[in-house]
Amino acid sequence: MGHNVFIEGLVRAVEQVDGQTYVTIGGSRALWQTISSIGLPSTQNADTTPDPSNDSEDEETPAQAA
Hints:
single chain; 1 helix; three-stranded antiparallel beta sheet
């Protein structure tokens, strides 16, 4: 078996190709079997504050649309 690696980044895709499972993380694809751990980079901004430049009084919020 190959080397196990730790990868930092967001998982963008999981796919099956020719019976092999691949994970796409941060734009790179790796075989599932070679990954021992996946984590978020420590420098990633976790702030989820909405961007005020995208604020519009004419748009419905998800709660209003429901």
